[in-house]
Amino acid sequence: MLAGKIMTLQTDHITGPIILAAGRVAVRLFKSAVSHTEKERYELVSDADRSVNSLLIEALRREFPAFGVYSEESEEIEGDGKHRWIIDPLDGTAYFLCGVPYFSVCLSLEVGGEIIEAFVFNPVSDELYYGSADPTTATLNGKPIRCSSVDLIGEAKVGVGFSANKPKIDKYFADWGDTLSSCQKGIPLIAPALSICSVARGRLDMFIDNGSSMEGHAGAALILLAAGGFVRNYDLTEWDHRTKGIVAANHALGNVLEKG
Fold this sequence. Notes:
It is a single chain. The protein is of the alpha+beta class. The chain has two domains: 2-144, 2-Layer Sandwich (Fructose-1,6-Bisphosphatase, Chain A, domain 1), CATH 3.30.540.10; 153-259, D-Maltodextrin-Binding Protein, domain 2, CATH 3.40.190. The chain is built from eight helices and 15 strands. It has helices spanning 2-9, 12-30, 47-63, 93-97, 166-182, 192-201, 214-226, 251-259; strands at 36-40, 43-46, 68-71, 74-77, 83-91, 104-111, 114-122, 127-132, 139-140, 143-144, 157-160, 185-188, 206-209, 230-232, 246-249. The strands form three sheets. Strands 4-3-5-6-7-8-9-10 form an eight-stranded mixed β-sheet, with helices on both faces. A hairpin with a 2-residue loop joins strand 1 (36-40) and strand 2. Helix 2 runs antiparallel to helix 3 and helix 6 packs parallel to helix 7.
């Protein structure tokens, strides 16, 4: 049944140009001074988030007026109750504000509660990741990508979604101390969408984040699954893109985690 939905709802010929246009706005603002505010402790939002968000919503509503829109930076727009766009206009705002080119524009399409199509775009490196619920559709700039084949934690590069926040760091080491102590390299990364896509393309072998949100991880998780990867909730229960947190890995390391 899902394959039939994909055949009739694949939107990349329309949404691809939209996300590229949003990326151009993000790059222009990245090269200039942008003001920002604090949504809550450790959570920043910039004028660039708002500008990119507005562009995406206006374009998507024009092309798909019946679809709802859920964004990190604005109130939800109700649609037909079945189709919903999920937007993170800038995943990695802190990096953006500090001049670090590790952020992305994220867009995914949810149909009947399932993510069926996803885009993650790093506009600085000009890298567009795409995936759908049809297996093996994961691409980077139109070329197929696959996860690494690393099957030992001791040989794995593991990204972890923390910044300089001691309680969160302590929790990661309480939950994942053995993994972080024995992996080849643990790397702090606070832009989950690109980090999950790095697992999909084989640059990282695993990524763990206990605070990632639906807007930032839903689409990237679909891309990873389409690249042959493994995705679970942070507590290793069955994946639900609406929950906070994620464990993303290649298939081999996913098997290791499943076995405990």
